[in-house]
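Human
Can I borrow your eye for a moment on a structure tokenisation matter? Give me a protein, with the fold worked out from its sequence. Write it directly below this note and I will take it from there.

Assistant
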Amino acid sequence: MSRRCQLTGKKANNAFAISHSHRRTKRLQYANLQSKRVWWPEGNRWVRLKLSTKAIKTLETKGLQAMAKEAGINLNHF
């Protein structure tokens, strides 16, 4: 499975690692992903998702069903 948030689609960002002598080498800034078990009231069961921490905070206000609809995800497959 890729390092991508399943609800928001957040993924790694390309960046430079800059040394003390200011030499720049490519690196990746990964999203802060957490594996989380979320209660889905409409389906009356738990759903395990890989979410970014920003998505977890948004999930508390919007709700799982609304965020899944925005992302175009069918929660029956999780």
User: Anything to note?
Assistant: The helical segments are 53-62, 64-71. The longest strand covers residues 33-40. The domain at 13-73 is CATH 2.30.170.40 (Ribosomal Protein L24e; Chain: T;). The chain has one domain: 13-73.
